[in-house]
Amino acid sequence: MLKCGFLLWCMAPSPSNGAELLYKRIIRPFFLKHQSQVDNVVNEMKDKAKGTADAITKEVKKAAVNLLGDEKKST
Asked: Which of 14, 20, 53, 55 is deepest in the core (most CB within 10 A)?
């Protein structure tokens, strides 16, 4: 019941609804305070994802070349 009340408060169509209040008083100040740390984490994750994608692409290209080479030998 408490959860339903909380969700209704968050979604209330009023200027002082819960979602806006939570964002302005808790979430936004937290992110502004820790913005540089969040940016660093996001950049590290982006770099790791790019490295992983590059490694996978390289392996797929090698596998395709090997597969095509094997097909030419068998024909």
From this structure: 20
